[in-house]
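Quick illustration, no need to memorize.
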Amino acid sequence: MVSLNKLIKQLNHDEADKREEAILALGELRDERAVEALIKVINQDTIENRTYAIIALSEIADHRAIETLLYCLMDNEERIRLASSRSLGKFSSPQAISALLISLRKDPKISVKSRAALSLGAIGSELAVEDLMHESKLEHPAALLYSIDSALKMIARNNGYTDIDDMMKSVREKKERHIETTPEVEQIQEREELLEFPTLWPYIRKYVYEQLEGIQTVLSIESDEKTVEKKISSILGEKFWKFVSFIEKKMGKKFSKYQSDLIWQMTWDVSKPIRSEIFLMIKDQRKEEEEIDKYRSWLDRIEEEKDAREELKGGPILEIKKADELDAEKAGGAELARSISGDIEGIMKKYSAWKKEADELDEISEFGIDTE
């Protein structure tokens, strides 16, 4: 197997096809140490290799790629914009949502618009719902309207709604509550004000990481997804208002209830990749345990058939493992399940860079995040 360093070095090869091989291999490795090298490829290689590098970055899904991918949405080449709009769907970032909404409204190509809509659906944030609904009522080509409808269904499903109508009812109710104190025009201004705050996303990412870092102590593999989601929501909400106060001090202003709710939605969205990995781990664990249970049931049936035949004919017909051997095998199967599924600590380790990124900007202690 080719080492990471050799692959990164191969990105500077004189032959484009050799660079392509390295790009594709780095995407398969999904090692965050390749991010900076792949970003350089996007800035200087052929259109084909730039496209492959954008896809590779989406496979790695490191948030450092977001800025480059946002820039690629403005590229002259349709293939680059298309690849970027697709890749941004892997990032639960308000920046990605805003950029994809702009592409949906303004990109000259239907293919890019459609891909932007589907990526918004993949992100699954309610922040995109109103804009998507607005676009769904315009005279767009059928292919684009289908993508928008698919995106809305994905967002509804991601947020636990029964359907789009149920989601829209909730969004309208939230909006009406805010209009009592913050008129719609002011809501747009306040939202843009938040999006323009340059260090908001690193702070949100660090807050999410710090609050969930010890999550393995409160979650159980046996928990269902809804229970886990409630636990995560509770953990993120515990010190949220301290976090909001911290951001207010940084911005030098008091937030409206609307802006505070926006920050909560952004915080919940940013936690999505961690939540998704935990849910996948739980599903994998259950699948392995189900297979083990099926195997045990099969052995039990053989044991019963053996006993029945011995009663009729006498003498052993089939060698069956002893109970202690079966227990040992079951334990081995459970260990296999754990090795396949991984653990929450391992998941959180992947996102440890979120803490370091904000530490480089400033010290954060006022909302319960310890500083060194």
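The longest helix spans residues 272-313.
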